[in-house]
Amino acid sequence: MKKNHVRAKLKKGEPSIGTWLTLPDTVSAHLMARTGFDWLTVELEHTPISMETAAESFAIISACGTVPLARVPWNSVENIKRVLDTGAWGIVVPMVNSRAEAEAVVAAARYTPLGNRSVGGQLHAANFDTDPASYYANANEEILVVIMAEHIHAIEAADDILSVPGIDAVFIGPNDLHNSMGLKPEFDSDNKQFVDAVQHILSTAKKHGVAPGIHVLDAAAAKARVEEGFQFIAVASESGMMLAKAREITKALGIGGARQVAKY
Ligand code: 3PY
Ligand code: MG
Question: What residue's CA is closest to ligand 1, atom 7?
């Protein structure tokens, strides 16, 4: 069975950099899997990506030697089960705001005795280049479980949440976190409440042996967060990169007026 090299890196305390896939397109997933990112997260929370496109993307990404992850639309047994059973090597779960919600994530993502994930499916084993019995026996050691801290309630309950056994990483969603503070959604800011919340997650994660992570917009921000001790870092998204480059060109040509493009 293949090894999840991203989980291994995080366990060793090393950083691991990836990006988000937001387009419902297996061709762009294939091309992105060859660009050098450690992992690619198929984004099912805020996009029209179907389960079929996601499953094909997981297969293509893993065949390229990159780790396929899925951000599920919400924290539920159904969502977590379906992406893992169709071949994702890990999950990113939005808005985990309490210990009970974190325990529910682990229960859905880990097989007994760590959780109660139901057994079944073919594609999980295929993507790890093994048979289902070996997958069931080893999946708890290979599946990456990432929960998101993106609400002030998660910051307040960080100690309770991050002490739940079975969580590998905590990933800050800066846009929702700003939003929950009544601030404009942004990837970063100097706002003291936001800065303190980020530092609180960083130190609480380290205390509990959980890899801290955050979503950033560019390589400079990714390097700065690595310097601070963050490990699981997402840089923008494939559509954000495409649109930023397209806008750079149309701006240089003086066309398109003051049009803004989505950042991720
Ligand atoms: C956020 O910034 O809210 C996110 O969910 C980033 O992935
Ligand atoms: Mg969010």
Answer: 173
